Amino acid sequence: MRGAVIYAPGDVRFENLDDPKILQPTDAVIRTVATCVCGSDLWPYRGAEPIGDPHPMGHEYVGVVEEVGGEVTHVEPGQFVVGSFATSDNTCANCLNGWQSSCLHREFMSTCQADYVRIPNAHGTLVATDGHPDAAFVPGLLAVSDVMGTGWYAALAAEVKPGSTAVVGDGAVGLCGVIAAEELGAERIIAMSRHESRQKLALEFGATDIISERGDEGIARVKDLTGGIGADSVLECVGTAESMRQALHSARPGGNVGFVGVPHEVQVDGEELFFSQVGLRGGPAPVRRYLPDLIDRVLTGRINPGKVFDLTLPLDQVAEGYKTMDERRAVKALLKP
Ligand SMILES: [Zn+2]
Q: Under CATH, what is the fold of the domain 2-146+286-336?
C-alpha cells in the first residue's frame, strides 16, 4: 500500500509501505475512505516537535473494515466505520467513566494517511454506520473522528450551557467548536477571526459576533461584548502560549476555559489563575464517548462539520496538503485514496 511518511520539517513523502496486518486479536484493518491533515500534524512539519526517525503520519480516518481479529465482535468486514484518534477498549475504568482518551489500553493512531490502517482496540474504538453513508456525508463523518469530536469536548470542558456566552477561534477545531456551542445552546458565540472566509463559515455555523483583533485588544473587545467581565466559556483550540493567555483573560470570574490544542511552551501562572477564578480543563478529547451522538447529528443533517474541509486532494498529493495548510491557504485538507 501507499502512505505518508515524514522525514524532516517540511519533508512529507508519499511512499510504498508494508500492508498493515492484524497483530492482536483486538485489531482491525480498514481500507481508508477518507483521511486528512490535522493542525497538530503541522507541529512536527514546522519543526516545533522533534521527528526522530522517518515515520508514518495521520490520525483521522473513516473507512471500510477489511479484516478483524478474533476478539472483535462489534464490527465486521464490509462495514463503514468511524473511529477516534485515541483508541480505547471501552471497558476499563476510565472508559466506563467516559474518558476513553485515557483508556488504560490506549494507543494513539499515527498511520492514517495511508490506503489501509491497522486499528488497535478496534472492538472498543470503531462505530459502524447503518449501511454505507452517502458520499456527501463522508467529510462530516471524517470530521467527527477528531476535529468535531474535539470541538465538542472543548465546548463541554468550557461548560457551554443554554444561554451562555462562548468565545472560540477560527481554526478547524475552533470552527467545530462554534457548531458545538450552537448545538449546546449558547446564546452568544464570539468568533476570534481575521480571515474573511473563516469569518463567513463561523457565522454560518452559528457565531453571533466576530472579533478580528488579537492579544490584549482582542481580550478588550471580548470584555466590551460581555458587560466588562469576560465570557462564560472560552474554547482554546490552538495550544500556543499566546492563545492560552488570551483564553484565560477572556473568561469571566466563575467562567471556564476548555483547552484542546496540544500545549507547546504554555505556562500558566498559579497566582494569576488563583485570582482569576477561572476553571480550566483540557486534554485529548474522549471522542469515543461522543461518536454515536455526533454520527447521528451528521447523518440527520443537523450539523455539517465537513464544511471545514476547504481543500480535497488525492492521497498521493498529501505533501501538498501539508504545504497548503502550513501556508494557511487552507483550513483543512481532506485526502482521498
Ligand atoms: Zn479503556
A: Quinone Oxidoreductase; Chain A, domain 1 (3.90.180)
